[in-house]
Structure formats: structure tokens, C-alpha cells
Design a protein that fits this description.
The chain is of the alpha+beta class and 239 residues long. The chain has two domains: 77 residues, no CATH class; 137 residues, Nucleoside Triphosphate Pyrophosphohydrolase (Alpha-Beta Complex), CATH 3.90.79. The chain is 24% helix and 30% strand. The protein is built from six helices and 14 strands. Strands 6, 7, 8, 9, 10, 11 and 12 form a seven-stranded mixed β-sheet that branches. Strands 1-2-3 form a three-stranded antiparallel β-sheet. Strand 6 and strand 7 form a beta hairpin. Helix 1 packs antiparallel against helix 2. Bound molecules: zinc ion.
Length: 239
């Protein structure tokens, strides 16, 4: 490798040249301090924005940086006659919710198993915001669709840039109100109420295979929400 430790990272899609080695951006979520990962997240999002907005969606002409002193990341159509020349384009994000649903006065937390994951791996119910939908309604819809449960009005509990490549995670807590677990069978094939006792013995996704419950790694919003429920830390931080 020509690159040496300490040089600025370089991107190739979701891979980052970091300290002389290509690693996934996702792996750095846990390896870097939050403020350093935030800088990488911004760089990755801007790289994605430039790549996916190379041409005008209205007329097909090449895009160029827009002279926006307030939002320096804006782009515009290079053709002066096009509406896109004066109506700037700004980075867009896919917003996804995370739902920390509890039951029995907080004694149990709802975790779900995605059909694509190894059997022991579980996490919070998650899903993308649909057009015209509020975040709170998104939480209620996703929980109902994936697990068949109805929940109370969700309460916002923090957010996190999720630059894989351009998402924003919004975390919520909610209380179970009605229903028995019925996994949708498509995205989720299993959901369970987890006690704090079982959560204590859980291992991280990166750990070696085994039967023990596996949960998301530290650094992710989903883990922060879980740890907050378990009494191990606050759900919010500055990332
Ligand atoms: Zn145009």
C-alpha cells in the first residue's frame, strides 16, 4: 500500500481507504469517535449526491455546483434556460425509523429478526418513511406491518446520520397497546419480547457464531436505544 497512516480517507462507493487499507464505511461507525465518523458521513453523503445528480432531472443537461452561500452543497442545472438553473437541488436523504417498543412497564423490549440475517441476530423494528407520512405514523405502521402489534404514540429519542449511502435514522420509543406478535413473513420472520436479563447475555453482531442473542454494535442508534432501555446509557448523543 502506498498510503500511510494518518492520510485523509478516500472513497470508493461504500469502501474507505483508511490507514492504508480498504475498509467498509460501516465498520468505521464503531471504530471512530462520533465526531470523526460524522465528518466521513458528510463526505460520503456529498459524494453520493454528486454521483447521483450529475445530470438535470428536468432537461438532462450536466449539473454544476450552485452559487448558494448558505448551503454550499447545492447543485443546479448548467443550462440557464432550464428551471433547474434557478431552482437548486439539495442533498436528499432516505429517512428510516427505529422503534424501541416496550411492554410490561418497560420490562420487555421488542426485537425482530430479518429474514436475511443469521438466526441469532436481532434488532429493533425499522423501516423507511413513506411520502406524505409523519415519523410517528411511520413507526406505528412499520410495527403493525412487521409484527402485528399496535403501539402508543411514539416519542422521539434521537437520530443518526446513516451514510450507507444517504439515510437518516430517527429513533423512537413506544409502548405496546394491543395485539399478539405475528411476523409479516416477508421482511421479518420472527419477533420476540426480550427481557433485560436475556439482553445482558447478548453478544454483538460481530461476535463469533453461536446460539446466544446477537444485537447491533455500539455506535449505532439502534444499540443506543437498546442500552437506554436496559439502563446502560442515554439514547441521545451528538451524532
Ligand atoms: Zn435542466
Amino acid at each position: 500500500m502506498e498510503e500511510k497512516a494518518g492520510q485523509p480517507p478516500r472513497f470508493n462507493g461504500d469502501s474507505v481507504l483508511w490507514n492504508g487499507e480498504w475498509v467498509t464505511l460501516r465498520s468505521l461507525l464503531t471504530a471512530l469517535p462520533p465526531e470523526e465518523f460524522a465528518a466521513l458521513a458528510q463526505a460520503r453523503s456529498m459524494d453520493h449526491f454528486g454521483t447521483t445528480h450529475a445530470f438535470c432531472g428536468r432537461c438532462g443537461a450536466p449539473m454544476e455546483p450552485a452559487p448558494d452561500t448558505v448551503t454550499p452543497h447545492a447543485r443546479r442545472c448548467s443550462k440557464p434556460a432550464c428551471e433547474g438553473h434557478t431552482r437548486f437541488s439539495y442533498p436528499a436523504f432516505s429517512v428510516a425509523i427505529l422503534a424501541a417498543v416496550t411492554r410490561s412497564c418497560g420490562a420487555e423490549l421488542l426485537l425482530a429478526h430479518n429474514t436475511a440475517w443469521p438466526a441469532p441476530r436481532m434488532s429493533l423494528v425499522a423501516g423507511f418513511l413513506q411520502p406524505g407520512e409523519s415519523l410517528e405514523n411511520c413507526v406505528r405502521r412499520e410495527v403493525l406491518e412487521e409484527t402485528g402489534l399496535r403501539v402508543s404514540l411514539p416519542v422521539f429519542s434521537g437520530s443518526q446520520a446513516w451514510p450507507f449511502p444517504c439515510s437518516l435514522m430517527a429513533g423512537f420509543t413506544a409502548e405496546w397497546e394491543a395485539g399478539e406478535i405475528r411476523a409479516d413473513g416477508a421482511e421479518i420472520d420472527r419477533a420476540e419480547w426480550i427481557t433485560k436479563e436475556r439482553f445482558k447475555s447478548a453478544r454483538e453482531w460481530t461476535s463469533t457464531p453461536g446460539d446466544a442473542l446477537q444485537i447491533p454494535p455500539k455506535g449505532s442508534l439502534s444499540r443506543r436505544l437498546m442500552d437506554a432501555w436496559a439502563g446502560k446509557g442515554p439514547a441521545k448523543n451528538n451524532t
